[in-house]
Design a protein that fits this description.
282 residues; alpha/beta; Helicase, Ruva Protein, domain 3; Rossmann fold; 2 domains; seven-stranded mixed sheet; two-stranded antiparallel ribbon; elongated
C-alpha cells in the first residue's frame, strides 16, 4: 500500500523531528534511504516518488530510535572506516576515524608484503580488514572474546574478499600460548575507559555500545597493562606493538614499558590528541 507522502515529504518530516540534533539533515537522509531501500541518486532524482506505508512506518521507527540515542550506525547496520563500508551491530564498537591512525602506523612501518599481523580485540574486524586490503599478502590473524563480534568480523572479511584472515575466539593471546607463533606486528584498539569515566560518557556510547569493549577497570589501563606485559612473548625481535589509547592516558601508558621495549613513540589524531602508541620489541 502506498503512503500519502512522497520521499521528499518524509525527508522534511524527518529533519523536523530530528531538528535539535546537529546532523539532523544528514541523519534524516541516511535513515530515509535505509527505510525506503533507495540510493541517494535515486532519491535526489525523484523526491516526489510516493513512499510505501511500510517504508514510512519503518522510517518513523528509525527516527524514533535515533531520538532515543541509538547510534546511527546501528540503525543503518553499517559504518565506513578507511573508506571501506563495514557491517556493524550492537555486538561491536562503531568504528571511529581516529583508529585509522593505527592503520597508518602499521603501513608506515611495514617493510615486506607478507608481514605477520595479529589484531587483538578485533570487534567488527575493521583494522584487520583495512590492513588486509592494503597488504593483500600479509598473514593476518584476529582474536576477540565475543563470538557475536567474530561473526560480524567474519562477514566483513568475506564481504571485502579478505577471507585469508584467520579468526580465533580467545582473550588476548591465549590461542597462541605454547605454539611458538611470533608476529611482526601486534595491533589493538583495546578497552580503555575507567570506571570513573563511565558515567560521563555520552549516553549514545554508554547505553548502546558493548560495555566489555569499552570498560577497563578502575584505571582504564587494565587491558593495556596486560597487553604490554604479554605482547613481547608473541612478537619476533624487532616486531612492533601498536595500540590506541584514551584521552589523558599517554604519560601513564609510557610508564608501563620496561627495558624489553625500544623506539616508543606517540601518534596524534586529527583533533591533536595523543591516540596511538608504537613500541618495538628489543
Amino acid at each position: 500500500m502506498e503512503s500519502k507522502k512522497t520521499l521528499g515529504e518524509l525527508y522534511r518530516n524527518g529533519i523536523a523531528l530530528l531538528g535539535d540534533r546537529p546532523q539532523a539533515v544528514l541523519e534524516a537522509k541516511v535513515l530515509l534511504l535505509r527505510a525506503a531501500a533507495v540510493t541517494e541518486a535515486r532519491f535526489l532524482a525523484a523526491p516526489d516518488k510516493p513512499c510505501s506505508s511500510k517504508a514510512e512506518a519503518f522510517f518513523l521507527r528509525l527516527v524514533g530510535r535515533r531520538l532515543d540515542g541509538v547510534p546511527l550506525a546501528y540503525l543503518t547496520g553499517k559504518k565506513e572506516f578507511w573508506s571501506i563500508p563495514f557491517e556493524v551491530s550492537p555486538s561491536v564498537l562503531v568504528p571511529r576515524p581516529e583508529t585509522e591512525v593505527l592503520v597508518e602506523k602499521v603501513l608506515g612501518l611495514a617493510t615486506r608484503e607478507d608481514e605477520s599481523i595479529l589484531d587483538v580485540g578485533t570487534g567488527s574486524g575493521c583494522i584487520a580488514v583495512a590492513l588486509a586490503k592494503e597488504l593483500p599478502r600479509a598473514r593476518i590473524q584476529a582474536v576477540d572474546i565475543s563470538e557475536r563480534a567474530l561473526r560480524v568480523a567474519r562477514r566483513n572479511a568475506a564481504l571485502h574478499k579478505a577471507g585469508h584472515i584467520q579468526f580465533h575466539r580467545c582473550s588476548l593471546f591465549s590461542a597462541f600460548r605454547g605454539t611458538g607463533v611470533r608476529f611482526d606486528f601486534i595491533v589493538s584498539n583495546p578497552p580503555y575507559i575507567s570506571r570513573g569515566e563511565w558515567d560521563g560518557l555520552p549516553p549514545e556510547v554508554r547505553d548502546f555500545e558493548p560495555r566489555r569493549a569499552l570498560l577497563a577497570g578502575e584505571s582504564g589501563l587494565e587491558l593495556i597493562e596486560r597487553l604490554i606485559r604479554r605482547a613481547g612473548t608473541f612478537l619476533r625481535p624487532g616486531g612492533y606493538l601498536i595500540f590506541e589509547i584514551g584521552d589523558g592516558q599517554r604519560d601513564r601508558v609510557l610508564s608501563l614499558f620496561g627495558k624489553r621495549w625500544t623506539e616508543i613513540e606517540t601518534a596524534w589524531d586529527l583533533a591533536g590528541q595523543p591516540r596511538v602508541i608504537t613500541a618495538r620489541r628489543a
